[in-house]
């Protein structure tokens, strides 16, 4: 499923912890990885550029050693340019099936991906993007750093998948990844659809029962597909409210370990300028988030 992955590397404690959590991706077929670190030559003076580059290369080798210790075949890339553009280009050129970055509240890069620039990795991703959030407390009880990292290796990203859908074409594409996860052994999935109160109130409020009947049938069909593929525990939720708020609350309540959703919903133009549901979920989720881009 995710045989070859691209890791957006940073020099930060969060990025180091993230690498140990990637042991769990091997359940989804991950065997090879490229660790990419990017620097902007315009931000480095000529006098210290060689010194900085040597530090970045040394850090890449340390991160490579971590991934090799987990059984990955590893390559490294040190690239000059802008991360948000270079990352996508290299992922496509190297035929990677997944891009991985640390979650936004845990790293500078994560915040950068959600910054003011419209042309960022999330909006223009050509490959699925996993924003990985290290589980809270997973390593905090271990005084020994080696034991702490060992504890992180045990975190299971696929223990409980939450799939959020608005039944758009992009959401159906994301569902195909959930199906593949189930085929790879995932046994617990929660499916959620939220009736958007902003779009329904006040003119369509009289049709909520009708909408619920249609969408409940859709959810049941998705559940049936996953159970036929071997998923023993499939839970469905049909909610009413503000989609991002309801999804985030359900993630916390159900203690999902990974949330899967399309990066673009039905209202792409509006979401692009106003802040999409997927972007808000990815930024504030207590779980890791896999964003699946639309076909372009």
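Sequence proposed for the structure above (296 residues):
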């Amino acid at each position: 499923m995710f045989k070859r992955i691209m890791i957006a590397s940073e020099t930060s404690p969060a990025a180091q912890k993230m690498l140990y959590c990637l042991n769990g991706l091997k359940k989804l077929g991950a065997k090879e990885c490229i660790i990419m670190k990017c620097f902007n030559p315009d931000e480095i003076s000529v006098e210290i550029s060689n010194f900085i580059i040597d530090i970045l290369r040394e850090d890449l080798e340390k991160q490579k050693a971590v991934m090799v210790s987990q059984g990955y075949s590893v390559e490294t890339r040190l690239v000059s340019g802008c991360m948000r553009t270079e990352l996508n280009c290299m992922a496509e050129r190297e035929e990677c099936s997944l891009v991985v970055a640390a979650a936004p509240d845990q790293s500078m890069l994560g915040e950068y991906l959600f910054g003011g620039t419209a042309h960022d990795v999330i909006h223009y991703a050509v490959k699925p993007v996993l924003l990985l959030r290290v589980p809270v407390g997973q390593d905090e009880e271990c005084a020994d750093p080696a034991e702490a990292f060992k504890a992180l290796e045990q975190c299971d990203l696929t223990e409980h998948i939450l799939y959020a859908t608005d039944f758009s074409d992009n959401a159906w594409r994301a569902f195909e990844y959930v199906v593949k996860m189930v085929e790879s052994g995932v046994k617990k999935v929660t499916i959620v659809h939220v009736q958007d109160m902003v779009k329904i109130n006040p003119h369509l409020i009289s049709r909520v029962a009708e909408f619920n009947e249609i969408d409940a049938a859709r959810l049941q069909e998705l559940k049936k597909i996953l159970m036929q593929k071997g998923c023993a525990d499939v839970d469905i939720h049909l909610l009413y409210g503000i989609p991002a708020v309801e999804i985030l609350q359900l993630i916390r309540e159900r203690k999902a370990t990974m949330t899967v959703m399309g990066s673009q919903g039905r209202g792409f133009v509006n979401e692009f300028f106003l802040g999409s549901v997927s972007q808000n979920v990815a930024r504030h989720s207590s779980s890791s988030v896999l964003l699946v881009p639309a076909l372009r």
